[in-house]
Amino acid sequence: MELELVNAMAQVAPILETMTEEAAAELAEGYALAAAAIAVGLAALGSGYAERGIGAAAVGAIAEDRDMFVPGIVLTVLPETLVIFAIVVIFLV
């Protein structure tokens, strides 16, 4: 595995050495956009995982007591703020 990685890096190194500054900047921008997409995707995945349990508990609480509707909705929506914050951070950076 390590030998394959070294061979792959050896093949890419000459290409990187001959890159212009403009091409290197475009490559770096592409990596930054990919990292941002991964960050938002992981935030959404974590949010969905948290909502799974919270939503089930909220539905159970609402079924037993109608007064729990607003707290149940608030607690169900709360994990979604992680995704909203992740998107805001992407636009700020």
Strand content: under 5%
Along the chain, the helix and strand elements come as: HHHH
Radius of gyration: 22 Å
Shape: elongated
Distance between the first and last residues' Cα: 35 Å
Give the tally of β-strands: 0
Structural class: mainly alpha
Q: Characterize the largest beta sheet: strand count, sense, and whether it forms a barrel.
A: none
Contiguous low-pLDDT stretches (5 residues minimum) are none
Q: What is the average of the pLDDT values?
A: 84
Provide a descriptive summary of the structure in words:
There is one protein chain. The chain has 4 helices and no strands. The chain has helices at 2-17, 21-64, 69-77, 80-92. The relative contact order is 0.10. The model has no long low-confidence stretch (mean pLDDT 84).
Descriptors:
single chain, 93 residues, mainly alpha, 88% helix, 0% strand, elongated
Outline of the structure:
The protein is 88% helix and 0% strand. By secondary structure, the chain is mostly helical. The protein has a domain at 37-93.
